[in-house]
Specification:
- This protein is of the alpha+beta class.
- It has a single domain, classed as 3-Layer(aba) Sandwich (Protein Transport Mog1p, Chain A), CATH 3.40.1000.
- It contains 6 helices and 6 strands; from the N terminus they run E-H-E-H-H-E-H-H-E-E-E-H.
- Strands 1-2-6-5-4-3 form a 6-stranded antiparallel β-sheet, sandwiched between helices.
- The longest helix is centred in the middle third of the chain and has 18 residues.
- About 25% of the residues are buried.
- InterPro entries: Maf1_sf.
């Protein structure tokens, strides 16, 4: 898998980082990965597709964690509408203005439509508690089989002690 440097995602992440000024412990970030596997990743054919893509993307997004024990049950399938509701909740915890939250979610939805075929994509919430050292995390994944692409939306709330360092 390869990290994709998509200009609109890079700009969006720069804008999202400004929201951290309201609460430095919270972060929201989007990453895109190509499903084209490297020679090293092809050796791990024991994990079936598309689970292999999800695990590989998570390993790239969180290099200090081991996701090798994840199963397909670790990924809860959700609808596009549910993803938007979850993102609304995440934004509302960061930024209390309802109108701004709606605007943020609409913008992210337009970004998703630009990066993946939303009508054919699969949406997931990562259910596994691999990131237990964080106070709160929500990890969403969007898989577009046709474009061979995985998007990860990371919403993280760090523990108090980690921010002070």
């Amino acid at each position: 898998m390869k990290f994709l440097e998509i200009g609109s995602i890079i700009k969006t992440n720069a804008l999202l980082s400004r929201l951290q000024a309201f609460d430095p412990r919270r972060s929201l970030e989007i990453e895109a990965y190509s499903c084209k596997q490297t020679r090293e990743q092809k050796k791990h054919k024991t994990i079936p597709k598309p689970l292999r893509f999800y695990v590989s993307a998570l390993e790239l997004a969180f290099p200090y964690y081991d996701f090798s024990t994840m199963t397909k049950e670790s990924f809860r399938n959700i609808s596009h509408g549910m993803l938007k509701n979850e993102l609304s909740f995440v934004f509302f915890t960061m930024y209390k203005n309802h109108e701004d939250v709606e605007e943020f979610v609409s913008y992210l939805d337009a970004l998703l439509e630009q990066c993946v075929d939303v009508k054919r994509a699969q949406f997931f919430i990562v259910e596994d508690n691999m990131l237990d050292d964080l106070d709160f995390h929500r990890i969403f994944m969007v898989y577009d089989k046709r474009k061979r692409r995985v998007l990860i939306i990371k919403s993280i709330l760090e523990k108090e002690a980690e921010v002070a360092q």
